[in-house]
Specification:
The protein is an all-alpha fold. The protein has a domain at 2-56. The chain is built from six helices and no strands. The model has no long low-confidence stretch (mean pLDDT 77).
Length: 95
């Protein structure tokens, strides 16, 4: 019960401050609250900070960048389809 009160207080304080640095702790706090593992919480927080330090972007920004369609994707798709059709003809496989 005390742990729930502490988590709620930290959650309310982080939103009442309006500071982005404090909200960075919400992920690890949620991890600790759901799993109860201090080690997993520390790993979550540490890995996020390491990713930000190395790339200069948050994990979300990195994933968005990876998922954006590339101009070369359409050309690659056409090339793959042509090669698949060519291979099917050689193997005498029907669609």
């Amino acid at each position: 019960m005390i742990l729930k009160k502490i988590i709620i207080i930290i959650f309310v304080l982080s939103f009442s401050n309006g500071c982005a640095q404090n909200t960075a702790l919400l992920g690890p706090i949620y991890t600790f609250g759901s799993t109860g593992s201090v080690f997993q919480t520390g790993l979550s927080y540490g890995s996020n900070k390491t990713i930000i330090k190395i790339t200069g972007k948050s994990t979300k920004e990195n994933i968005e960048e990876i998922l954006q369609p590339n101009a070369n994707d359409a050309m690659l798709r056409k090339l793959l389809k042509a090669n698949i059709n060519k291979t099917r003809k050689k193997l005498n496989l029907s669609k």
